[in-house]
Specification:
Layout (H helix, E strand, L loop, with lengths): L3 H11 L19 H11 L3 E5 L2 H4 L7 E3 L14 E3 L5 H6 L2 E4 L3 E3 L4 E4 L16 E7 L3 E2 L2 H7 L7 E3 L4 E2 L7 E2 L6 E7 L1
Parallel strand pairs: 1-12, 2-3, 2-4, 4-7, 5-8, 7-12
Antiparallel strand pairs: 5-6, 6-9, 10-11
Protein name: LUD domain-containing protein
Pfam family, one: LUD_dom
InterPro entries: FTHF_cligase-like_sf, LUD_dom, NagB/RpiA_transferase-like
Length: 192
């Protein structure tokens, strides 16, 4: 007499399993997108948004500050009058900086999300978590209409960071507290 365990295992072995069918994902790859929608959605998250044509001119507000510039930031962005901090930096040095200036891998108009992948001009993840101000430059051609479109543009093996506004939480008595897990201020320059 077979044990209950053996009987169950035999039923599993004898079971007829249909062949796996491919899952068809008919995601909408496009949408209204564009600068206007992205700017509106980013602003909905309480980020500061500027549409600019000249990045160095738009960075004039950084004069007199200590700003982290990751490796690969375009030289023309490193304007005079700013103390530029470059890697390698310790956690304490990052924490004492006034802010960080980065580019991005892609931005998503539909959700107002910026995606960093740690490549040139974006730096390691800690750069955008410790300074209290993150200034991110997004070029018009980096704006994808939808999440599926953005994901197609990204390299899935890179470390991805999705940013939707300044760091905030409402966990404590449902009161919004900003700057808990990252910068209290997110400023986005959309370059046309």
């Amino acid at each position: 007499m077979a044990s209950a365990r053996e009987e169950i295992l035999q039923r599993i072995r004898d079971a007829k399993v249909p062949p796996a069918r491919p899952v068809v994902r008919g995601y909408n790859q496009t949408g209204p997108g564009g600068i206007e929608l992205f700017a509106e959605r980013v602003a909905d998250y309480r980020a500061i948004v500027h549409v600019v044509s000249d990045v160095p001119e738009a960075l004039a507000s950084l004069k007199g500050k200590r700003i982290v510039a990751p490796q690969g930031v375009p030289e023309e962005w490193l304007i005079d009058g700013v103390t530029w901090l470059h890697e390698p930096l310790t956690i304490d040095e990052l924490d004492q900086a006034d802010g960080v200036l980065t580019g991005c891998a892609v931005a998503i108009a539909d959700t107002g999300t910026i995606v960093l992948d740690g490549s040139e001009g974006q730096g390691r993840r800690a750069l955008t978590l410790l300074p209290d101000h993150h200034l991110c430059v997004v070029h018009q051609d980096q704006i994808a209409a939808s999440v599926p479109e953005a994901l197609q543009r990204l390299e899935s093996t890179r470390p991805l960071t999705f940013i939707s506004g300044p760091s905030a939480t409402s966990d404590i008595e449902l009161s919004r507290v900003e700057g808990v897990h990252g910068p209290r201020t997110l400023e986005v320059l959309i370059v046309t």
